[in-house]
Each structure stands twice: as structure tokens, then as C-alpha cells.
What does this fold into?
Amino acid sequence: MKQPVTKKKTILPKIIGFLAVSLGLIQIIIANQTASSGLKVKNFDETVNILESENRRLENQIAKETSLTVIYKKAKSLGFKTQASFIFYTSPLPVAYKSGDR
It folds into this structure.
């Protein structure tokens, strides 16, 4: 009966050692995945910052190109002229006639 007791004593340290090594490997794997996830997040943040600055630059360019001064100069260079006279309608035209008006 002493034989099984010594086997238990030799198996228990092996199990504890195996668990310690397994848990250590799991910790290394999780740390590696966390580090690579952090790198991905950093890359996404850099991409977002680049796109936001590009978006601001394009908004400024659009504001400059659509200003009235730029549009006036481009129209003048293309040969457009300002309207010499304007036509005003003093009374609005009717949308529909009454049945008795015809």
C-alpha cells in the first residue's frame, strides 16, 4: 500500500509543473495578442489623423474655390459678362384659371 502513496507524491509535482508551464505559455500568447492589437489600434489612429487632416485641407480648398471672388474671376476669364439690365415681373402670373375665366 505504500507504493500508490509514493506515486501520488511524484505525480503531483509533475502536474503542478505542467500547469505552471501551460499557464506561462498562455500568458505569453495573450500578451503577444494584446501587443499586436495595440499596434493595430495605433495604426488605425494614425490613419484617422491623416484622413482628418486631409479632410480639413480639402474643406479649405473647397471654401476657397467656391468663394464669389474666385468664381467672378473665373467667369470673367471665360468671357462671361455681367447682366446689363434686369427684367422684373411686377405681378405674379396665375397658376391656374378659374373655370369661368375662359
User: Anything to note?
Assistant: The chain has two helices and no strands.
